[in-house]
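Appendix B, record 7
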Amino acid sequence: MNIDPVAVALGFGILLLSLTIHEAAHAWTASRLGDQTARLLGRVSLNPLVHIDPIGTVVLPLIAAISHLPVIGWARPVPVNPRNLGHPRRDFMLVAAAGPISNLLQAVAAAIAIRATSSPLPDGGLQAHVPVAVISALYTAVDINLLLAFFNLIPVPPLDGGNVLLGVLPPRAAAAYSQLRQYGFIVLYALLLSGVASAIVIPQTNLLMRILLP
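Structure tokens (predicted):
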């Protein structure tokens, strides 16, 4: 297996930045909606060190990058106390959605940067007006952020999609569904190891990349 250390380092660095913005978005949104728990813990921050989860941010992404698999992961969950929110169910859902939305916005920003720094060629390729390494990094940023957005939207607690679903379901159904949280990581690892997560995430990522990129 050929391992490109530069590509691995680039992918890991972009993932770390993307996850940092993702978690800071959760914390900032919670703060704006009335819960200062994350702010008091220093989580409204672009310092990656306050968000890193050893397994989700370091081990699994590095294994994925070295194995030429989709680079996805997660950071330490931002603590949120729904009782401090003005409208607990709705606002908790908005806090959960803020992370994936931040990744989608990062992907769109990187795609716009690619379009602004390159032009299409007749053969379907691109003429870069900046160093090719910059275009490569921007492509990686689009890919990773779309993967993160769609991965986190899988409706399994503790992923953001599970928390968004809890805000959409009727109260009784939400209470029943929340019982899945205690088994969430078991379900999550099963989805990852079985390839089901990739089957859910990759087609959506590829579709949106075709829409966003020149």
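Remarks on this record: The chain has a mean pLDDT of 91. The chain has one domain: 5-212.
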